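Structure, all two chains, one model.
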Amino acid sequence: MIERYPFHERICHWLTGFAYLYCFGTGLAFYSPYLFWLAAMLGGGPTSRFWHPVVGLVFFGAQMWMHHIWRADVSIGPADTEWLEKAKYYVSNQDEKVPAQGKYNAGQKLYYWAMFYGAFLLLLSGAFMWFPEYISFDWRWVRPVVVFIHEGAALITIGAFIIHVYMSVFMVPGSVAAMVHGSVSKDWARAHHRLWFHQKTGE
Amino acid sequence: MSNGTLQIKAISGHAGPVAGLDTSRDYSVAKLIDVTTCIGCKACEVACLEWNGYPFRETVFDNTYQTMPDTEWNYYNLIRFNEHVNEDGTLSWLMRKDGCMHCADPGCLRACPADGAIVQYANGIVDFNQEHCIGCQYCVTGCPFNIPKFNSETKKVHKCTLCSDRVGAGLEPACIKACPTGCLHFGTKEDMKDLGEKRALQLREHTSHTNAGVYDPAGVGGTHVMYVLHDIEHPERYGGLPKNPTIPLLVRIWKGPMKWIGNLAMVGGILGVALHFLRFGPKNEQ
């Protein structure tokens, strides 16, 4: 077995993930009347409204911690452009036609950056939505604008999140176990992240 | 107004037909505020506090005849004061009773995400149910009149109820009852509109206020609180009454098309990955 995610990285990942999930659930409740029952499941409407921004700050903080840990691994380089050009082979499971990848492939990196910039948009717009009573009536046009930005950014992260969960739970067996236990098999590493495997094992 | 179901249809032992049978009645209510006869006495402010059981607040003196800068969560009704300099150099003291306009198309109700927190009664009253309010203040975002006010202790939003509890019992709102000059009127929307137009016509014909008119803005579908203004072309002179109030376009987009686009995208995303899994299945490790 090869260690892929040390303990602190796993903590960081799940903290970000569960904070995101809470904001996702409560946010959907505020988003649509047909999903307002989610607020009832998550403590009731007023409770959800109280905790959504607080947990949002936790999400943002965890995302910044993650950035500190993984920023070198997720920076996009020339190898990623080549991967993206051949992404159709990756999507159709013809992985032998896809160039070898480091710790993260370009798709994972794009997911990372979607969540990273999404977190900034959500924080900035969310700060205004947290305390709209401090926006004076002369600046009232700001209120619907920030709600619009918050909702748009949330929808983009939700799209990315659906793909992330699908890829890790269904498409690439062993991913969830890696994020829970921290290690992957040699075969897994060789198959999905060959450059990282070589770097890690010297083979 | 509320007792439409108690209109008599048949009477026992009564000679002749039932009086008033088959007459149509407008059950929507409205308040008409004739600002031209308001003397700024604040009796309506006091009556509002008394009926709603709120304590008197500290007032703010800013060298005008206005009690405080803005309405508050427990101060629904504020006479706004503006000393307007006319073209000929004379002064006009403009008084306007500010409070919820009870829009026929309420922006607060459209924007609210909490089930049952805002209701619009068939008689036109828009009312907040604080027990269902989650404190998000989307109503503040939706309102073009700066009306809903947040109580930061209870995290609930409040505004004028048009005394729905009094109107439901067949009484007029507290402010109407208190007004000493008769500048406040209460009745059906139709009657109040009619009364307002007559007063505006009187002003145009018999005074120098040749631009007098009734403020019943179409941008929010008309309102159940209307004003008679000396100059209908300049409502902003009366403490910032908007000329063409509308629900912000982005609120309409965000509560309308954006929901369906977002829902389709989310359901489409889930269906998409499910179909992808059925077509290609998981990646193997060879």
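The longest strand of chain A covers residues 2-3.
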